[in-house]
Amino acid sequence: MKSRIYHEVQYMRQTVFMYIMTGFVALTLGGMAFIFLTENKERDTMEMIISSGIAMVVLFFLTWLLYSLYLDVRIEEGRIIYRMPPLVNKEKSISRTDINSYEVVKYPIRHYGGWGVRYSFKHGKALTISGTRGLKLHLKSGQTLLLGTRNPEGIKNAMERMMKNESDYV
Predict the structure, then answer these.
(1) How far apart, in whole angstroms, are the C-alpha atoms of residue 72 and residue 62?
(2) CA angle 18, 27, 85 (to 5 degrees)
(3) What is the reported pTM?
(4) Are strands 144-148 and 124-128 parallel, antiparallel or unpaired?
(5) Where are the transmembrane segments (predicted)?
(6) DSSP H or E stretch at residue 59
(7) Rounded Cα gap, residues 48 and 111, in angstroms
(8) CA dist 45 to 29, 54, 65, 131, Å?
(9) Residue 18 in contact with residue 79, Cβ under 8 Å?
(10) What is the CATH number of the domain that holds 62?
(11) For 102-125, what is each residue's pLDDT tens digit?
């Protein structure tokens, strides 16, 4: 087993997102109650029940997705391992030899269009949960990968150690 130099797990549990999702659920439930309580003979009751059920399933799925989403980044001797369940369940690994250069950056959200697993033709792939800091990897293949972090100094120190092939535990 390779020794771990750095490990960070970020959860998508920001209060703002939970309030937004709660608001959407409340609006949907309120709208459904309004439709059922107002008498409108032109609407078919079964259609309303089906469409309301679909709306609730979608909202609960999105709420579950946001609540269960997290970014797991590990730096071990010789490689970086990352995953972002439930979107990227399988661990992805990048060898030290595949990295051309790296930098810890402050990035504008607009470069990637938000948080999550994002792709940009100009800026490459990004896996972020929140904030505007990340480890940007420039790979020898020409690809760019940004991994979000809440600990820019810690990940920078870990990258320096990994690239120098130091394998002390943190």
Answers:
(1) 20
(2) 35
(3) 0.76
(4) parallel
(5) 16-37, 49-70
(6) helix 45-68
(7) 40
(8) 16, 14, 30, 45
(9) no
(10) 2.30.29.30
(11) 999 998 777 777 777 888 888 889
